[in-house]
Amino acid sequence: MDNPVDALFRYGDKKMRVDSFAKILDSDFYSGVPDSQLKPLCNYLMDKYGIDSNHHIIAANEGNCVAVAAGYHLATGKVPVVYMQNSGEGNIINPVASLLNDKVYAIPMIFVVGWRGEPGIHDEPQHIYQGEVTVKLLEDMDIATFVIGKETTDEEVEEAMKGFKKVLASGKDVAFVIRKGALSDAPSVKYENDNAMVREDIIKHIVKVSGEDPIVSTTGKASRELFETRVANGQSHKYDFLTVGSMGHSSSIALGVALNKPEQRIWCIDGDGALLMHMGSMAVIGANNPKNLIHIVINNGAHETVGGMPTVAANIDVVAIAKACGYPNAVTVDSFEALDEALNQAKSRNELSLIEVKCSIGAREDLGRPTTTALENKQNFMDYLETLG
Fold it and tell me: What is the H or E stretch that residue 84 is in?
């Protein structure tokens, strides 16, 4: 095999066209959770299919994607594609091992995995270890793997797919791991909604009302905006636990804190994509009914942090779900006046509360990232919790 440097010299930084990649995959059904590294593929699918139950489903989490795709195979006999960020590999381990595996149902599937945190490529802390074990995890699950980089040619991917077809025919699974910037020529897709409130301004209102209460914030831009809000206010970051990874788990982290600090009000800033990813956590929160927890769901109906592709949250009744799960208080707001009223009411009562905030899609182009390390964030937050008794 060519040395990668030699290959880059021969072919140049040409990148693979996303439409060529889709043609090589030769599948008419995709299910996935969006990833910024796979934005060309995501935009291609939205441009070609939109959200179409016969061809393209954005699922709640990656295990959900695998199950939907397995159902597609059972109904059609065809091979589906599941796309995801490598952080989603953890969510697919159970269905891959106990459903797809050729020792069980032998369901063939093509995985397309965005490789965040690839060794040697600078990335955020939550991606570092996941990047190190990305290919190993796939191989440990007996998934044949081919890595696509900027230097990879169409011919090389076609040859890999030719070999993969034999693997798929035996009831096994395969994966294309996509390096940063490997796919190109994505169609332009605009993601927007009719909501007026901007998320960063919503967070500023939450910070003002919450005072010195601890906040647990969800993965993505919400935590980045919370960090920058503290900077702009000249406030300490000790009040906040920024859940930089483990999407969908911030509300459970907040529950764990609230149950063990029963005299201290705890706030959770959540997102709609994160809420959907592990919605069962709402039932657990409702069943435990911590009177000191305020759960805020900023709902823009989009996976905005990774590009803006839609979630199903714009079309579900989050308040009804919360009440059905046992939340004694749940409201939805779509204006800053209503938001401030809901925040102050939640702060004044000693009961579990949920506030859904309808939000626009978009963020500042110059939005920064936390300048403290994850370990510093954890320690500062723990030290502050300790002072609260």
Answer: strand 81-85
**Tokens standing for 105?**
């149902």
Report the distance separating Cα 252 and Cα 268, nearest Å. 9
> What predicted TM-score, i.e. pTM, was given to this entire model?
0.93
Could you read off the pLDDT of 47-62 as tens digits, one per residue? Answer: 999 999 999 999 999 9
Nearest to 368, CA basis, from 215, 200, 206: 200
Q: CB-based burial of residue 120 (10 Å sphere; 0-12 exposed, 13-18 middle, 19+ buried)?
A: exposed
Beta-carbon contacts of 283 under 8 Å, excluding residues fewer than 6 positions away, are: 325, 326
Contact 112, 176 (CB under 8 A): yes
Instruction: State residue 5's pLDDT score.
Output: 36
Under a CB-based contact definition with an 8 Å cutoff, are residues 172 and 201 in contact? no
- The torsion region of residue 220 among left (phi > 0), alpha (psi -120 to 50) and beta comes to left
Q: What is the three-class DSSP state of 331?
A: strand
Model confidence pLDDT, tens digit, residues 5-21? 334 333 445 689 999 99
Angle CA 64–32–97, to nearest 5: 50
